[in-house]
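Methods: example folding runs. The two proteins below were folded one after another, and each record is reproduced exactly as written to the output file, sequence line first and structure-token line second.
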Amino acid sequence: MAARIGWAVAGLFLVAFTVSECAKHEAPATAAAVIFLGLPWLPWRPLRIAWVPLCLLVLYTFGTFVFPPFFTAGLGWLTGIATYRVVRGPEP
């Protein structure tokens, strides 16, 4: 139960952050976030590992690569993982 509450709080923050980034960078960033939001719901378990999108966000933040849809895709993916874990429960 505590894990679901934690993921719910993280999910609310991620939704707010994703929406603000999508509003700032408009259509391509929004499309990337929406597409990657659905990744955790696909049947492949590696798509539900939170470290992968988190690494993408860190690489984008500290790297020299400038392409905002890449960042919003990572945010959308992490938001999808949070939503999945709230609805389905934590992974074993």
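Second run, written to the same file directly after the first:
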Amino acid sequence: MKSLLRDTAISATAPSPSAIALCAFTLWVDHGRPKNTNEAIWLEAEKQLIARKA
């Protein structure tokens, strides 16, 4: 039961994939559309969105 509650709490605070995608696209454009940065920009977007919710 504790695991279920913990997983629910984590998912409640995690940004949606569509929110991350929008933020990542904005970051990618702002950085000049660099090649081969998909994962790094996605993680940065996720980090920024989590920080906004905190």
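Comment on the second run: DSSP finds three helices and no strands in the chain.
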